[in-house]
Design a protein that fits this description.
The chain has 411 residues and is an alpha+beta fold. It has helices spanning 2-20, 28-31, 55-60, 306-309, 350-354, 365-398; strands at residues 40-44, 48-54, 69-70, 82-84, 91-97, 107-116, 122-135, 150-158, 160-165, 174-176, 187-193, 209-210, 214-222, 228-238, 249-253, 256-257, 262-265, 271-277, 289-302, 339-342. The strands form four sheets. Strands 9, 12, 14, 15, 16, 19 and 20 form a seven-stranded mixed sheet that branches. The chain has a five-stranded antiparallel sheet with strand order 10-11-13-18-17, with no helix packed on it. A hairpin with a 3-residue loop joins strand 1 (40-44) and strand 2. The N and C termini lie far apart (186 Å).
């Protein structure tokens, strides 16, 4: 009799659980439990943070999907999730837009610390941390037989990225960053322009750019929330497309700047702008053209914090080449390239370079001799011409008749 009662109790309990899970993709053998830490998944995206909560333990605990809300905002429908019953197990999805993350009480905290950046150089490093929680409402009674559910989440975003360009002949390059990387930006661009108006993209001729041609560059972020600005921390060049090439030439790092490099805008908007003069790497001395690849380590900073991150020149120690290590794994790397330079022509402006298609004209020794002879003949001809004019004027003066009285001897 006791055995029969136990069997009836188990069967009735199974029916109750199955009825509780009815219509949802849940397994009573696995989901007849209270929630655990493994029941929430967090995806730190470029535009949104996506949260997935296993709905089956929520049902077992006596709650529905409408009981779950972000940061206790149970009265706001925008702060609730929605059911996805097309997966196993059934989940409740929450989507948090990075542009309006504070609307449901999520917090954004940016921490700043002195430490090594992507290349081991001493710098101010920032991390953006977004945190919040999902919970169930408290009952309006003194006691409750239902457990209170609480799911905490956070996303950590590094605010430093490596932008390296190895296809500058096509004037621009971009990379889309995967959502799982935990980055605030979906696209970083490194663009080259003809002049300081930053309107016309630079066209690099097949014969390459003339040495000392001034190139205008811009690091630009797109699909970025307006609260963030772009701060170029370190821009340099290499003779190869490898940003870790041991041979490199720095354009600027903090207060240290190449004399031919000018920084126009940095940390004031979502675009950093600078210019530099084209050069060649000495290792390419036996080549007709030299290749130059451009790379920039770029940070994102909150608009109000950017002025605090700019270096105070004269008080910041210079970096040493031996301090450089490698590229941090959190960097978003984009490649394109290269800048091609030539050293066999006199400098011209960028607009003229864009129209050059044929090989440059070279003056040999025969041509130089002919030009010199023509110049000498021209000078001698001018001298003969002036002498002839002088003689002609003197002859006219001698032949003029004299005035006086008549001589009768000639009558």
């Amino acid at each position: 009799m006791e055995r029969l009662c136990v069997i009836i109790l188990l069967v009735s309990k199974t029916f109750i659980v199955n009825a509780q899970f009815n219509g949802f993709n849940c397994d009573a053998n696995f989901h007849s439990r209270f929630p655990a830490e493994r029941d929430i998944s967090v995806y730190c995206g470029v535009q949104t943070i996506t949260l997935k909560i296993n709905f089956c333990p929520v049902l077992f605990s006596g709650y529905t999907d409408t009981d779950l809300a972000l940061n206790g905002r149970h009265g706001d429908a925008h702060c609730r999730g929605f059911i996805n019953n097309n997966t196993f197990p059934t989940v409740v999805l929450f989507s948090i837009s990075l542009s309006t993350l504070e609307s449901c009480g999520n917090s954004l905290v940016v921490s700043t610390a002195q430490g090594p950046n992507a290349y081991g150089n001493l710098s101010l490093v920032q991390i953006g941390n977004i945190a919040g929680y999902i919970d169930t409402p408290d009952p309006p009674t003194v006691i409750s037989y239902l457990p209170g559910l609480l799911y905490k989440f956070s996303c950590s975003y590094p605010l430093e990225y490596l932008v390296n360009n190895t296809q500058l002949a096509s004037s621009a390059a971009a990379i889309s960053v995967k959502d799982s990387n935990g980055t605030f930006v979906s696209t970083l661009n490194l663009l080259l322009y003809n002049d300081s108006t930053y309107i016309q993209h630079l066209a690099i001729p097949m014969s390459g750019l003339t040495l000392k041609t001034r190139v205008f560059a811009a690091v630009k972020a797109t699909n970025l929330d307006r609260r963030w600005n772009v701060l170029m921390d370190y821009c340099y060049t290499t003779p190869s497309g490898n940003p870790n090439d041991e041979l490199r030439y720095d354009l600027f790092f903090g207060c240290d700047k190449d004399p031919q490099t000018t920084v126009f805008e940095n940390g004031k908007s979502q675009m950093g702008r600078f210019s530099f003069e084209v050069f060649r790497f000495v290792k390419h001395k036996n080549q007709k053209m030299s290749t130059v690849f451009l790379h920039c380590v770029t940070k994102l900073c909150r608009a109000d914090d950017c002025p605090l991150l700019l270096p105070i020149c004269g008080k910041r120690r210079k970096r040493d080449t031996s301090e450089r290590t490698g590229v941090a794994s959190d960097n978003a790397v984009m490649t394109a390239g290269p800048i091609i330079t030539r050293s066999d022509e006199t400098p011209t402006n960028n607009s003229q370079l864009a129209q050059l298609n044929g090989p440059p004209f070279k003056m040999n020794s025969v041509t130089s001799a002919l030009i010199s002879a023509i110049a000498i003949l021209g000078v001698m001809s001018m001298c003969f011409f002036i002498l002839s004019l002088s003689l002609l004027r003197g002859k006219q003066t001698t032949s003029t008749p004299l005035s006086g009285t008549h001589n009768p001897a000639f009558s």
